[in-house]
Specification:
Length: about 525
C-alpha cells in the first residue's frame, strides 16, 4: 500500500458525504494595462467544457461552480477524473508528457509542484494573468506562505492555489479554565495554567494533563507519527521554529544540525505522555481521539475543528479553540514559531492542449481561486479547501461558516446538506484567527523533485528514534546520509537549482537559510 494514500482528507470526504507582491509584479508584461475586466460582462469563450483531474479527497467545488462560470464567461466542466492523492505522479505525469493529455487542467497536492514544473510541460501562466484586470491585487491577496512556494518556479508562475493546509494548535478551553486543574498546575510549575507558547511549555502541559486525567481516559495530546512520510512534519513544527532547515544552499543536509536532535528529544518526550499506542499514532486515530474528547490538545491541520464540530454535541464542539503552534524562546524573550504547510493543493494547465482550451482552463481555475468565488468555497464542508487568501480570514469570512453556501443547492447526491459548518460565530472566528496566525509563520514542506523520497527517509528514521532503536542524533544522521544519496541519485546540480526555489521564497518571508 502506498503510504501517501493515508491522509486526513479520506476522513473529511466521509464526513462530507454523510453530512507575490513585488516579485510577482515583475512577471507581468506591459499588456496588463489593457486587461479584460472580471467578470467580463460577456462570454469570452464559446461554451467550452473542460475535463480535469483531481485527487479524490478534494471533493466537489468545480462542479457547483461550473454553471456560474459558464454563465459568466462561457466555460464550464464536462467531466472529471479522480485519483488518490498519493498516486499523483503516476496518474498525472504520463498525461503531462503525452501529446494529447486527457485533462485540460489538473489539481494536485502541492508537494509535487516542483516535480511537475521540472518536466517543462506545465503552461506558464504569467501572460494569462496579465490579460485580466486586478491580477496584482489577486497575487497580493494569496498568502505568501503559499504563493512563494506552490505557484512559482524558476521565476515564472505555473500554478494557481486552491487549498492552503497549515498546522495549528487545537485545544479544549474547558480544561484550561478548570479551577482545580489551575490550582494544581500553579503549585507544581510556579506559573499559571495557560495555552503553551513554547515547546518546553507544551511538553510540561501535556505531561500535567496526562498525569491528572488519564484515569478518566483523557490525555494531554496525541502527536501524529504514522505514516512516517507525514509524521516528520509534526517534528518539523518543533525543529523549524528552532532554526532547523532542510539543506544549506549547497544542498548539504542540515536536518541533523543545530537544535535538530533537541527538537526530536522534545517530540519523543511529548509522545511518551500520550495515550496507549502513542509511539505509532496514525492520522485516523488522532482524529477519532479528538472527536471523542480524549485529548486536551492536538497539533494538527486547521480543518480538524471543521469536520469535528459536525460529529460532536454542542458542548464538545464549542469547547474547541485554536492557537499558534508553540515555538522557541529567543535570548531577547521573543518567540519564534513555525507551522508546516503540509500537503496543500495547486492547479495547473498542461502545455500540450489547444490554445483556446488553455485560455478557457486558465480562466476557470483563476476565477475558482479568486476571492469572488473562493470566499464562499473554502467555508463549504463539501469543498475540501482550507483558507489560502487574505479575505479567507477575519469577521466577514467567519460569518460565511455559519450560513449556507449561495453558490450551490442540495439537489444531488454529491452535496446533501448546505447549512454552514459552525453554529457559533466565536468558534468560527477563533478557527480563522488561529489559521491566520499560523499561516503568517508558515514553513514549507518539500516541494521539489524527490519530495516523497526525502519525506520517507526522514520519517522512517524519526520513527526509529521514537521506538528507541536509534538516539535522536543517530536517527537524524541516518536521515541526512540517505538524503545525500537521494540528491546524488537525482542529480546534485539539478537538486541545487530546484532547491533555490525554496531558498528564495524562504528569504522573502524573512527566514534564515
Amino acid at each position: 500500500m502506498n503510504p501517501w494514500h493515508s491522509t486526513r482528507r479520506v476522513f473529511l470526504k466521509g464526513v462530507a458525504a454523510g453530512a507575490g507582491a513585488a516579485a510577482a509584479s515583475q512577471l507581468l508584461p506591459a499588456t496588463a494595462q489593457a486587461a479584460t475586466p472580471v467578470p467580463p460582462g460577456k462570454k469570452l469563450f464559446k461554451d467550452i467544457e473542460l475535463t480535469y483531474f483531481q485527487d479524490s479527497n478534494w471533493l466537489h467545488s468545480p462542479l457547483w461552480l461550473s454553471p456560474h462560470l459558464k454563465k459568466e464567461a462561457g466555460v464550464g466542466i464536462k467531466s472529471r477524473e479522480m485519483y488518490d492523492g498519493g498516486d499523483a505522479v503516476a496518474k498525472i505525469l504520463p498525461q503531462l508528457l503525452s501529446r494529447k493529455p486527457r485533462f485540460d487542467w489538473v489539481q494536485y497536492p502541492s508537494l509535487f509542484f516542483g516535480a511537475f514544473a521540472e518536466t517543462g510541460q506545465l503552461e506558464p501562466l504569467d501572460d494569462y494573468l496579465a490579460k485580466y484586470e486586478g491580477t496584482q491585487d489577486y497575487l497580493d491577496w494569496v498568502m505568501p506562505a503559499y504563493r512563494e512556494f506552490y505557484t512559482q518556479w524558476g521565476g515564472k508562475t505555473y500554478g494557481i492555489m486552491l487549498d492552503g493546509d497549515i498546522h495549528i494548535l487545537h485545544y479544549r478551553q474547558s480544561y484550561f479554565d478548570d479551577p482545580g486543574l489551575q490550582k494544581k498546575f500553579s503549585a507544581r510549575f510556579q506559573r499559571e495554567l495557560a495555552v503553551p507558547k513554547t515547546w518546553p511549555e507544551f511538553l510540561e502541559t501535556t505531561q500535567f494533563f496526562t498525569e491528572e486525567l488519564k484515569s478518566k481516559n483523557v490525555y494531554g495530546t496525541s502527536m501524529v507519527v504514522n505514516p512516517p512520510n507525514f509524521g516528520w512534519g509534526f517534528w518539523m513544527d518543533i525543529a523549524a521554529s528552532a532554526g532547523v532547515n532542510y539543506f544549506d544552499t549547497n544542498m548539504n543536509p542540515t536536518i541533523n544540525q543545530g537544535k535538530a536532535a533537541e527538537a526530536l528529544d522534545i517530540y519523543k518526550e511529548i509522545i511518551k505522555f500520550g495515550p496507549p499506542g502513542a509511539e505509532s499514532m496514525d492520522i485516523g486515530t488522532s482524529i477519532q481521539r479528538w472527536q471523542s474528547g480524549s485529548d486536551v490538545m492536538s497539533v494538527w491541520w486547521i480543518d480538524l475543528s471543521e469536520f469535528t464540530v459536525q460529529q460532536q454535541g454542542p458542548e464538545l464542539a464549542e469547547d474547541q479553540r485554536g492557537a499558534i503552534v508553540p515555538g522557541w524562546k529567543n535570548d531577547d524573550g521573543s518567540i519564534t514559531n513555525r507551522a508546516i504547510s503540509l500537503w496543500c493543493r495547486t492547479a495547473s494547465i498542461p502545455k500540450n492542449i489547444p490554445q483556446d482550451v488553455k485560455e478557457a482552463a486558465f480562466y476557470f481555475i483563476y476565477r475558482m481561486s479568486h476571492p469572488d468565488y473562493s470566499n464562499d468555497m473554502v467555508a463549504d464542508e463539501y469543498c475540501g479547501s482550507d483558507p489560502y487568501g487574505k479575505s479567507h480570514y477575519g469577521e466577514k469570512a467567519a460569518q460565511l461558516y455559519l450560513t449556507p453556501n449561495p453558490q450551490r443547492g442540495t439537489d444531488n447526491d454529491l452535496w446533501k446538506t448546505n447549512a454552514g459548518i459552525f453554529k457559533n460565530f466565536d468558534t468560527a472566528k477563533n478557527h480563522l484567527d488561529a489559521g491566520l496566525a499560523n499561516v503568517e509563520v508558515g514553513y514549507p514542506q518539500f516541494f521539489w523533485e524527490g519530495a516523497p523520497e526525502y519525506a520517507d527517509a526522514l520519517g522512517r528514521n524519526i520513527s526509529k528514534a521514537i521506538s528507541g532503536t536509534l538516539s535522536s542524533q543517530q536517527a537524524l544522521d541516518e536521515a541526512a546520509e540517505e538524503w545525500v544519496k537521494i540528491s546524488q541519485k537525482l542529480g546534485l546540480d539539478s537538486q541545487k537549482r530546484q532547491y533555490q526555489n525554496f531558498v528564495e521564497g524562504a528569504r522573502k518571508l524573512g527566514y534564515k537559510i
